[in-house]
Design brief:
The protein has about 180 residues and is an alpha+beta fold. It contains four helices and eight strands; from the N terminus they run E-E-E-E-H-E-E-E-H-H-E-H. The two termini are about 40 Å apart.
Length: about 180
């Protein structure tokens, strides 16, 4: 089966996002977003071009979550589609574009964040245990880490925890901090 793809953008929230509701009561997230542009020169360097600014919208429960999580200045990745719409501006019909986001998240390359995982049953509504990968499938670094944690597996695997137990918290580091540490 072919891989299904969709359009995506990455940028930053340039103004305070807004949450409103449509006439039928559906939540609508709106953000003015900026996109940075670069041009590669003949000598292989990149030259920064002017930012462009666009409208990003999202609907439903995802819109409410995005409004809670995003603020002016946040860098993001969004998956969805560009769509055109027509509106009247001072009595003149005008066609504009907006990005309709199906999913949006903070850019992990530029954002420090904490991941708080829910138990698998809470995420998808079913009880199941994920299969552990065999050591032959692991990369060398993963093999070394797995060997170091083998004693803890005797007490019970991380994936086999009792439902409702707290999941570990992972701390992501921005690429700039990681590079500075080297």
């Amino acid at each position: 089966m072919a891989i299904r793809t969709s359009q995506a953008i990455n940028g930053f929230i340039s103004d305070d996002p807004r949450l409103s509701y449509t006439q039928d009561g559906q939540a609508r997230f709106y953000a003015r977003v900026g996109i940075k542009h670069f041009q590669r020169t003949d000598d292989g360097q990149f030259h920064r071009l002017a930012n462009t600014y666009h409208d990003l919208i999202q609907f439903g429960r995802a819109a409410e979550l995005s409004y809670e999580r995003f603020s002016k200045g946040d860098e993001f990745l969004a998956q969805g589609e560009v769509r055109e719409y027509t509106r009247d501006v001072d009595g003149v019909s005008r066609t504009d574009e907006q990005f309709l986001a199906r999913r949006i998240g903070h850019d992990p390359n530029t954002t420090t964040y904490t991941v708080e995982r829910r138990p698998a049953a809470d995420r998808d509504g079913t009880e199941r245990e994920s299969p552990e990968r065999g050591s032959a499938d692991r990369e060398p670094a993963e093999k070394e880490a797995a060997q170091q944690e083998e004693p803890s597996r005797a007490r019970g695997s991380r994936r086999g925890r009792q439902l409702g137990a707290a999941e570990p918290t992972a701390q992501a580091q921005p690429a700039a901090t990681e590079a500075a540490a080297r």
